[in-house]
Amino acid sequence: MSNVTIITDSSANIPQELIVDLPVEVVPLTLTWDGATYRDGIDIQPEEFYARLRTSNTLPVTSQVNASTYIDMYKRLLDRGDSILVLPISSGISGTIYSAIQAKESFPDAPIQILDTRLVSMALTFQVLTVARAAKQGASLAECKDLAEEAYKHIGVYFVVDTLKYLHAGGRIGGAQRLMGTALKIKPILMIKDGKIDAVKSVITMRKAVSSMIDLVEAGIDGRKPVRISVFHAGVHDAAVELLDRVNKRFEPVESILSHVSPVVGSHVGPGTMSIAYMAGM
Fold it and tell me: Helix, strand or coil for residue 198?
C-alpha cells in the first residue's frame, strides 16, 4: 500500500508545528501589491501584511496556484511512490482547484484524487489535519477521501469583518452583498456556506458581534463531542487570545488552535477580522 500525501494550500494557514510529522504539503497562493509579487506565508507574513494593509492606499491582488506548481509537486510525490489527495481552498472562493485538476491531466493514470473542500482557513485546516492523521496511520487514498467528505459535515466557520469594503473590492462578497447599504454602521457576521461567503446577521458593535458569533458556534456544535476549536484573526492578536480563552472555557475542546487569517484570505476580509472555526463530533 502506498503512502498518502495531502496537498493543501496556504489559505488554510496551518500552524507549522501541527504538520511537522504529518504527510502534508502546502502550496502557496500569491498576491501582487504595488508591483511586487509575494508567496503567501513565505515572502510575506501575517503580522507585516496587516500592519501594511491598515495604512496602504492600494489593495493587493491575489492569484490562485498555477497548474505548473501542482505538476511539479505531483511528479515529486508520485516518483517516491505516494498517492495524493488534494484538499484546496473552496472553488466558490478561488479557482485553485481548477489548476489542480488541469495538472492531473498530465498524470492520467496516477493515484490522485481532488476534492472541492468548500472550506477555507482554519475550517480547511481541521479537514486536512483529520485526513493527514489518518493517512499517517495507514489509511488508503479512498479512505482518506471518504474521511475528508465526512469531516466536512462536522465543520463550521463564522467570522466578523470590521468592514465589508475588502470583500466588495475583491469580488468575494457573495451573499453579504445585501448588507452593503449599512456597511459603515454595522459589524456583519458571515459564514462559509456551501463553499461561499454568506451573511448570517449584523450587529452594531464588534463586542456584540463576537458574543453572537460564539452563540452561533454553540448552535452549530449542538452538543456533539469531541469539539475542536480555532480562533484566527487578521492583525488583532490580543482580542483573538481573549476570544480563544472564552471559547475554551465554554466548549472545553480537545484541540484548541490560535492562528492568523492568511495574507491572501486577509486581502479579501481586511484587518480586524475575527473568526471561529470548529469541528464537532469526530
Answer: strand
- Structural domain including 76 reads 4-29+64-152
**47 falls within a domain:** no
Smallest CA-to-CA distance from 176 within 155, 157, 156, 160 is with 160
The pLDDT > 70 percentage for the chain reads 93
Q: Is 213 exposed, middle or buried (0-12, 13-18, 19+ CB in 10 A)?
A: buried
Q: Are residues 24 and 84 in the same domain?
A: yes
Tens digits of per-residue pLDDT, 11-59? 999 999 999 999 999 999 999 999 999 999 999 999 999 999 999 999 9
What tens digit of pLDDT does each residue of 216-259 get? 999 999 999 999 999 999 999 999 999 999 999 999 999 999 99
CATH number at residue 210: 3.30.1180.10
Residues 96 and 161 in one domain: no
Q: Assign 115 to helix, strand or coil.
A: coil
Q: Model's pTM, two decimal places?
A: 0.92
- CA angle 72/73/74 to nearest 5° reads 95
Domain final residue, candidates 152, 168, 184: 152
Query: Confidence band (pLDDT; 50, 70, 90) for 180?
Result: very low
- Given CA atoms 133, 134, 135, 137 in this order, what sign does their dihedral have? positive
Per the DSSP assignment, residues forming a β-bridge with 97 are none
List Cα–Cα distances, 165 to 50, 120, 148, 207, 210, in angstroms.
15, 20, 33, 20, 19
Peptide bond into 253 cis (omega under 30): no
- Is the alpha carbon torsion for 237, 243, 245, 251 positive or negative? negative
Q: What local confidence, expressed as pLDDT, does residue 184 receive?
A: 54
CATH of the domain at 76: 3.40.50.10440
